[in-house]
Amino acid sequence: MSDTNLNGRVGIVTGAAGGIGRAIALALGAAGAKVIVSDVRDGQGTVSAIETAGGQAIFVPCDVSDAAQVSDLVAATTGHFGRLDILVNNAGIAGGSHLAHELEPEDWDRVIAVNLRGPFLCVKYAIPAMIALGGGAIVNIASTYGLIGAPLAPAYCASKGALVNLTRQLAVDYGSQRIRVNAICPGYVDTDMGGYRANLPADQSAAANARREAGAARQPLGRQAQAEEIARVAVFLASGASSFMTGSIVAVDGGCTATFNHGHP
Ligand SMILES: NC(=O)c1ccc[n+]([C@@H]2O[C@H](COP(=O)([O-])OP(=O)(O)OC[C@H]3O[C@@H](n4cnc5c(N)ncnc54)[C@H](O)[C@@H]3O)[C@@H](O)[C@H]2O)c1
Q1: Sign of the CA dihedral 91, 47, 20, 166?
Q2: H or E element that contains 118
Q3: pLDDT 10s per residue in the chain (265 long)?
Q4: Would residue 5 be called left, alpha or beta, if left means φ above 0 and alpha means ψ between -120 and 50 degrees?
Q5: Tell me: domain 10-190+225-251, CATH 2.40.50.90, correct?
Q6: 194 CA from centroid of ligand 1 (Å)
Q7: Fewest beta carbons within 10 Å, which of 162, 212, 221, 244?
Q8: Within its chain, how far is the Cα of 250 from the centroid?
Q9: Starting from the edge strand earliest in sequence, which strands make up the sheet with 10-14, in order?
Q10: Whether 125 is catalytic
Q11: Do the beta carbons of residue 86 and residue 11 sit within 8 Å?
């Protein structure tokens, strides 16, 4: 297959109840894939949107940090649709803003559990199904924070940096099985990661949004991305259009990491 048509393919998207994951699930569905919408939150709204657009999807709840739940997610996928071609490791949490010496060990552990153990578990249980098919595509949603240091985000930067190199490592081990593994590093995307800003008091929320807008404004493209702009790249990496790409780390960041003035507030 040499284009972005995904007819007949089956793909899991973790963290697909909202934000970037929802946009990726909709885009995979629009490209013809059958989609497993997975999240700790209710993802039925994403399923309905895919169905309204003429696609097929089911919702399977799953906390990606829990091995038994991830094993069940893959079993539900192959049980319902009979195969698994695509895994998008999108679920992630920001974990708040802290200096390392003020970060509680349990808060560090939770960020690593969701952002790094989660993708590992999903890969662990998905890969046997892909090997059985003779190939597959894995897309990890990392971050520009996995490429550079950013203020007040020690656990998040560490988790995403590790996910970037896990992407390369998996590409090495599974290329011979025709499983391609690539990562996207989004810059600022116009979502409310985990409701973080919405849950702040109004003045702090407004200030956090203003800092984000100001940071994005200093980058080459001068704005935040819409989730759909990340989703289009995820479909490309999941499809035959990227057939010679594996172990690639693709910044989709409006030029953020191309410049010293990367705009982090
Ligand atoms: N928004 C940005 O600016 C940005 C930038 C770079 C990277 N990212 C990455 O993109 C991904 C999506 O972020 P988003 O901005 O859409 O945030 P979001 O909070 O809108 O979406 C994340 C989703 O993951 C789900 N989730 C959280 N913990 C989970 C768990 N343990 N198991 C399963 N699902 C879980 C949440 O319920 C939510 O639906 C994350 O990995 C994030 O790190 C976001």
Answers
A1: positive
A2: helix 118-133
A3: 459 999 999 999 999 999 999 999 999 999 999 999 999 999 999 999 999 999 999 999 999 999 999 999 999 999 999 999 999 999 999 999 999 999 999 999 999 999 999 999 999 999 999 999 999 999 999 999 999 999 999 999 999 999 999 999 999 999 999 999 999 999 999 998 766 666 777 887 788 788 888 888 989 999 999 999 999 999 999 999 999 999 999 999 999 999 876 555 5
A4: beta
A5: no
A6: 6
A7: 244
A8: 12
A9: 56-61, 34-39, 10-14, 86-89, 136-141, 179-186, 249-252
A10: no
A11: yes
Residue position matching structure tokens 């940071």:
215
**Which pair of structure tokens corresponds to residue 172?**
């090495």
User: How many residues are listed for the chain in this entry?
Assistant: 265
Report how far ligand 1's centroid is from the alpha carbon of 176 (Å). Answer: 31
Catalytic residue among 125, 145, 156, 174: 156
**Measuring from atom 41 of ligand 1, which residue has the nearest CA?**
92
* 3-class SS shares of the chain: helix, strand, coil, % to 5: 50, 15, 35
Ligand 1 center to 251 CA (angstroms): 17
- Residue 223 and residue 83: Cα distance in Å, rounded? 39
